[in-house]
Amino acid sequence: MTNPHYEAVKRRLKRQPRTWLVTGCAGFIGSHLVETLLKLNQKVVGLDNFATGHPRNLKLVRQAVGEKAWKRFHFVRGDIRKLRDCYKAFGLKRPHPAPAPQHQKFKALNSRFKIDIILHQAALGSVPRSIKDPLSTHEVNVTGFVNMLMAARDAGVKRFVYASSSSVYGDSKELPKREDRIGNQLSPYAVSKYANELYAKVFGRCYGLETIGLRYFNVFGPRQDPNGPYAAVIPRWISAIKKGGPVQIYGDGKTSRDFCYVGNAVQANLLAGTTKNKKAVSQVINIATGNKMSLNRLFFSLRKKLAQIIEPRKHKKPIFRNFRKGDIRTSLSDIKLAKKTILYKPTHQVQRGLSFAVS
Questions:
Q1: How many distinct structural domains can be found in the chain?
Q2: Range of the structural domain that residue 39 is part of
Q3: Does 83 map to a domain?
Q4: pTM strictly above 0.70
Q5: For 74-86, how does the pLDDT look when each residue is reduced to its tens digit (9 = 90+)?
Q6: Catalytic choice (6, 189, 261, 344)
């Protein structure tokens, strides 16, 4: 499946390269964005502190794009919780104390990188982690987010695309999930992402920063870390099945998600970053496939696909555990707004994406 508009955007970018800043560049989604942009002849600045991202992801990107393209990548090691590191990503030195915004003055300083578009992916993910440690989630996801908005404002950058989350919908039972109808958030992580959306809109009103939020629905794919207590379900299960270990399902397995392959998320970021549709600015847009899959079905789909590459004796039955606090029972996206505003069209449905994920 293809999206003709997306293909046209990629051709145009090759002809007219821009400079992009990708935060969380060593992470799962961030590294895929860096790889795609470099393959499209773009210049990319990456910011990461390797808290959840991995140097190996950048090594994989380098191998995928080749040395010539890799020369167009500039890495800045920094922490978005530190305002000076955010400014450093733009090649700026933040005055101390910070003056009132003087965009022309800051823009003149922004001569090293001349960032055109920001794709902000850096965050501390996981609902369970946020329940265990809400302060760290707030520091990274809220304070760090405002720091990036400040740096973007003072660097004179116009377009700021950022990652939000379907967790914002909280306890809303309405299906499919529409952007203008949310419930009560169920975790500190969800609150932090909702705060991002509010801050982005305010910076648009106060400072003219063009922001577009992308509410991701359970993005998955290659380079997603399967290790640790807060690993996402798909890479964790793939790793467990391959090793012949236990697969744990929290709840009865009827919990469902709108799983979205990472290629769709990359498409959405590039479309949002380049769209000329003013009606897309200050919007928050669902990014998913518009289809749901239960955890039970996900398990059997993965087991079937992995049967082609591992011995059948290693296929285990799942172990059912208690429901986790903060988990949403059912998630299904309405993607009409994404289709209308940025001409998004998912190119990878779940089964196709799973085939890439297990390979």
A1: 1
A2: 4-219+261-288+333-347
A3: yes
A4: yes
A5: 999 999 999 999 9
A6: 189
